[in-house]
Structure formats: C-alpha cells, structure tokens
Amino acid sequence: MPQQPPAVGHVGSGPPTYDAEPTALPPADPDELDDLVADTVLDGARYGTSTLRAVSVRGDSARYRGEPRRDALLTARFGAGEQALVLVAMATGARATPGAHRAAAEACRWIARAVGRSHDRLADDIRAARRGDLKSGLHRLTDRSLGKLRASAAEQGVEPEEYTASLRCLLLPADPECRTRVFFGVGAGGLFRLRDGEWQDIEPRVAEATGEPVVGFGSPPHETPEGDRLTMDLGITTPPSPYEPAPRPPRPPFRFRASIARPGDTLLLCTGGMAEPLRGEPELAEYLTTRWSEGGPPGLAAFLADSQVRVKGYADDRTAAAVWEA
What is the pLDDT of residues 107-121, one digit of tens each? Predict the structure, then answer.
C-alpha cells in the first residue's frame, strides 16, 4: 500500500509572514459572550457511500490582529436512515465590517432552517434527478434566507452591504444508491473535484445550464421576503424620481450544480480563503493530490493539518468541506 507523504507547514516560495499558530484573541464583551467565535471548527461524518470532513480556520491575518473568524461553518443531518439529507453550509461575512462573523453565522442558520423544513421534498428531488425543481427550489430558499439577513441588517440600523455574507452549501443524500451531490449558493469560493489524480475546477458559471430549464429562472420573485406581493412589470418606463435613493448594487448571482459522484472521487467545497490559494499556487494543489489520492479519507486531525497548509500572500480564513466517495 503506498505511503502517504508527510504533512508540511507551508508550500510555495517561502514561509508566510505571520506566525503559524494563533496569537491574539478577539476582544470579549462580558455581556455578549454568545458572540465569541472559536479559532477553529472541525467536523466529520460518514453516510451512504460518502465520508465528510469539514473545517473552518481563522486566517493568519485575523489571528495576528486579534480579529474574529469571519467564516462560519454549519453541518447538519435532517431525517433518519437512508431518507436522511446532510447539509454543509459555509459563509463569509463582509470584509472590514464589525458584525461580519455574526452575519456569516446567521446566514448559515437561516439556510439550514429552510433546508431542514423542506428536506423530505429535497431528498426526493435529488433521488429522482429533478434538477429543474431542485434549482428553482434552492434558489428560492437561498433568496429567502438572504432576505432575512437584509431584514436583520435593517433591524440593527446598518446598511445591507455591511451585514451580508457569501453563502455556499452542499447537499449529500444518505441513500447509498444515490450518488448525486448538489451544490448551491452565492458569492466567492470554489468547487473542485479530485478525480483520477487530477483537480477539476467545477465551479458553475453564472450562465451555465445544469439540468432542465427552469421557467422564470433569474426573474424577480413574485413576493418580497416579507410576503408582500409584487405587481406585474408591464414594461412601461417611469422617469427617475429625485426623491428615490440610488439603486442598490446588483446581488451576487445564484450558482447551482448537481453532479454524479464516481467511486474514488473527492469533492471539495470551500470559501475564497481556500479557493484562491488552490487556484493560485500549483504546489498546494499538487500537495493535496498526493495527500488525498491514496489511503482513503484522512482522519479529522490530518484533514485539519492539510486544510491549513499555508501559502505566502494568502492570509484569509479558510473553510472547506471535502467528500470522499467509496
């Protein structure tokens, strides 16, 4: 049996600027201790033919400056037995905003609540390969979840752009006969597949068609997140009013991919802090290939070590979920 190469601390042209281990803790408010965020979160599971490893690690820069981790990670199982559905949700709060970590955590909770309440229908759609229904349904759940985040920003009296987050999710059915893996979300990050010793960047493009066409996909919703019905747009132009606020910047596009896993595949979903060095430093991709191509899924400690191999010039939080297929 081939021997796995030893773990390393960093790859690339040289060691990163910051220390390899945490230094400063974020400031704590004795009346807001629920607001504290751990430096590292680690989780794992095995269902059906897949083994899951998930981690969220505070970046070198935040560790040095004593700032909280802006990334959030949530893993949850809804249902039981072969009917169960596993959700991995990860989010990144807006840079340089005081509530970034809270927004990321809230985004994960809202989407988990929405998926959990619809998990029976979602699991049926995945098993039946109803990609059109999945895409439109998950788009709707994502819009509602992010709408609640905007409502939370309004309650706090902050701009929506200051209390927002990217959101990236993975759905894994527990049924061993179903090898469909579903990605959906909005915002920066990466979706990669390690197959036959080669990394494939399978992040869906915005205009990329996956599955059957969805009627009305990309059109405005029929109601607001608060439930108010929207009137039909008859195409009649209205001159801008000097009393109206400036238009909001466009929202990030919804992304979706439903793919069939093969035995031996490793699927990797990650936030931008992991995706950027994986795309920008070939040595990191080569290193993870040698670590993850042989010997089956790593243990939790080994996965943590692999996911935080450092690269000079990349100091953001890293959140990643990898799925090994038996």
Answer: 999 999 999 999 999
